[in-house]
Each structure stands twice: as C-alpha cells, then as structure tokens.
C-alpha cells in the first residue's frame, strides 16, 4: 500500500458547482494533496482509487458553500471554500486531505449572463450620464432664455419710462452747447422763438376765454354776482400755475439761481386789491392770506435775486426784501402799502 503524499490538480467539469438559485454554475479547478493515514480503513472499505474518493468528498463539500453566493461572487465563494480547508481533513476511508486550494470561475452560460448584465449596467450608467447632460443643457438653455427675457423686459420698461418722461429741451440744448459752444447764438434765438410762440398762444387762449365769459354774461348764462366768484377762482388758479413753487425750484439741481421779477411799472406780488379791500385786517391776519407764499420764499436757500422796477409796495416790498440781492431800476419806489385799504 502506497503511504506517500500525493498532489493532483484537476478541473471538476463533470460536476459544476451551483450558485445561489441554481440558475448558473461555477467551474472549479482544485489543487489537492492527500495521503493514506489509516491503511486498515482503506482495506476495510475496499478503496482502490484514493483520488476518486477525494474528488467526490470535495464536490459534496463545495456545493453547500457555492449555493450561498451569486454567480457574480466567485471570488467570495472561492475564499469561503479555501477557508474551509485550512487544516487537514481526515476521511472515513483512511485518507487525510492535508492541502486544498480551489479556483472558481463562472461557466460559459454564466459568463454570457454576466456580460449582458455588465453591458446593461454600462448602458444604464451612460443613459444616466446622458440624462444629466441633457437636463443640464436644458436648464442652461432655460436660464439663458430667462436672462434674455429679463433683459428684454427691462429694456422695454426703460423705453416705456423714457417715453412717459417729458423731454427736457433746455437740458438737451445745454448739453449740446457744452460740446458745440459756437451754436449758442442760434440756439438762444430758437429758444426765444419758442417762448414767444408760447406767449402768443397763451394770449390767444386768454382772449378766447375773455370772449367766452363776455358771451356768457351777455346771454345771461352767468349772473353778475357770479363774475366776482369766477374772478377770484381764476386768480387763485393763476397764482398756482403762474410760476413753479419756490420749494420745487430750490430742490431742482438744474436751477442755480432764482430771479423774482415784475413788470416795467411795478414789482407786484399779484394780490387782488379788491379782495383785500373787502376784508378787515383781522380777517386777513387770521386767514393767513399771504403767509404761505411768503414763508415759501423765505425757506429758499439758493441765491435769489429780486429784480424790480417802479413801485414795490406791500407784499411786493416784502418779497423784494426777501431776495439775497436786489437789482432795482432807476425809478424804484419801495415801501409799505399804507392803511388806506382798511379805513
């Protein structure tokens, strides 16, 4: 009887090892070492081929292990088998396995399955990457469209705002003259022409209103008692629109100096003498008849020039004195109005 050590390497192709679920199988290559350690047991069991006994034992030992792993887990199943045979294993047939190293690989059908699975995974990964690129591209396109739309809307709002704002002809002309001072004389002539045209149109409008009022009086559309009320309302309106409010001129950065002026005969504040004559001093004083306008002039901080000619009496005298400078003609008469109106 041969009691020496035996080493064999063989592929167990005739008995493939099942993976989890028994759908796919492993091919195994085994490097095994064994020897006879109990000759009496060998004789008793009538063992004539020790290698067959060893291979059958290994196959029965491998199968429960490989069934615990998926077909893609060949390395893990291989490690589990080799751990199982770290120490010598005696068999009932009188043979001891002192060495066993197994190498597992999926069979051809399993390889095809794993290749298709890997291809599907790669396709899924590529698809996800392409999806992310498509989403990013779409989001980028949408952001660009939103930016373009926002810019277009802002431009439209600015354009509409510019259309709603009145055109500052004087400001445009000043800007032009700062670059082309040689056009000053011509531009001044044009501005004078524009102002003259405005005055002519205003005079024509005033004449038409006068004709209308005369027509209404002549045809008894309004009564004589209504004329005085209409006159007072008209004068109040004229006071409001005849010139910009001093506060507005003081706040306007384009205004550097304010000039108060009257006619050639008088520096008049525009008070209605008839209205004043009908009121007592107490009524005028208690109703603050002229205080708001006077206080508005006193609040002005910009240089203010009072340019007057002729009479400057009463409130006209006060306004001329409220200027920082007084430019008087050759015939000024400045002083209080007197108390004749309240006698």
Please supply descriptive tags for the structure shown above.
343 residues; alpha/beta; Tetrahydropterin Synthase, Chain A; 2-enoyl-CoA Hydratase, Chain A, domain 1; five-stranded antiparallel sheet; 12 helices; disordered C terminus
Helices and strands: which structural class?
A: alpha/beta
Whole-number mean pLDDT? 79
Strand content bin: 15-25%
Helix content: 40-55%
- How would you sum up the major sheet? 5 strands, antiparallel
Oligomer: single chain
Count of DSSP strands:
10
CATH topology of the domain at 6-106: Tetrahydropterin Synthase, Chain A
DSSP summary: helix tally: 12
What's the CATH C level of the domain at 6-106?
Alpha Beta
What does this 3D model show about the protein?
This protein is an alpha/beta fold. Among the domains are: 6-106, Tetrahydropterin Synthase, Chain A; 243-343, 2-enoyl-CoA Hydratase, Chain A, domain 1 (Alpha-Beta Complex). The protein is built from twelve helices and ten strands. The strands form three sheets. Strands 1, 2, 3, 4 and 5 form a five-stranded antiparallel sheet that branches. The chain has a three-stranded parallel sheet with strand order 6-7-9, covered by helices on one side. Strands 8-10 form a two-stranded parallel ribbon. Strand 4 and strand 5 (95-106) form a beta hairpin. Helix 2 (50-66) crosses helix 3 (74-84). Mean pLDDT is 79; it is low at 339-343.
């Amino acid at each position: 009887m041969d009691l020496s050590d035996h080493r064999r390497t063989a592929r167990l192709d005739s008995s493939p090892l099942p993976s989890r679920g028994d759908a796919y199988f492993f091919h195994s290559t085994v490097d095994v070492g064994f020897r006879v350690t109990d000759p009496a047991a060998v004789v008793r069991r009538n063992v004539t081929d020790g290698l067959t006994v060893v291979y059958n034992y290994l196959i029965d030992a491998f199968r429960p292990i490989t069934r615990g792993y998926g077909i893609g887990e060949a390395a893990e199943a291989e490690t589990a088998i080799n751990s199982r045979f770290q120490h010598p294993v005696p068999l009932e047939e009188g043979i001891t396995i002192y060495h066993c190293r197994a190498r597992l690989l999926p069979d051809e059908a399993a390889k095809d399955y794993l290749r298709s699975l890997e291809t599907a995974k790669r396709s899924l990964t590529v698809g996800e990457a392409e999806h992310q690129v498509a989403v990013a591209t779409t989001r980028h396109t949408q952001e660009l469209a939103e930016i373009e739309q926002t810019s277009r809307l802002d431009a439209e709002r600015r354009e509409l705002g510019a259309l709603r704002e009145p055109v500052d002809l004087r400001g445009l002309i000043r800007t032009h003259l700062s670059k082309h001072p040689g056009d000053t004389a011509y531009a001044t002539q044009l501005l004078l022409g524009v102002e003259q045209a405005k005055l002519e149109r205003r005079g024509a409008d005033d004449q038409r209103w006068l004709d209308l009022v005369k027509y209404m009086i002549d045809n008894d559309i309004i009564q004589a008692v209504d004329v005085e009320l209409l006159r007072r309302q008209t004068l109040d309106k004229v006071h409001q629109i005849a010139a910009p409010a001093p506060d507005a001129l003081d706040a306007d950065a384009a205004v550097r100096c304010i000039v108060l002026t009257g006619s050639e005969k008088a520096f008049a504040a525009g008070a209605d003498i008839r209205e004043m004559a009908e009121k007592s001093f107490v009524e005028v004083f208690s109703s603050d008849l002229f205080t708001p306008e006077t206080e508005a002039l006193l609040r002005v901080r910009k240089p203010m020039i009072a340019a007057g000619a002729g009479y400057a009496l009463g409130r006209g005298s006060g306004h001329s004195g409220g200027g920082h400078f007084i430019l008087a003609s050759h015939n000024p008469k400045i002083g209080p109005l007197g108390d004749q109106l309240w006698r």
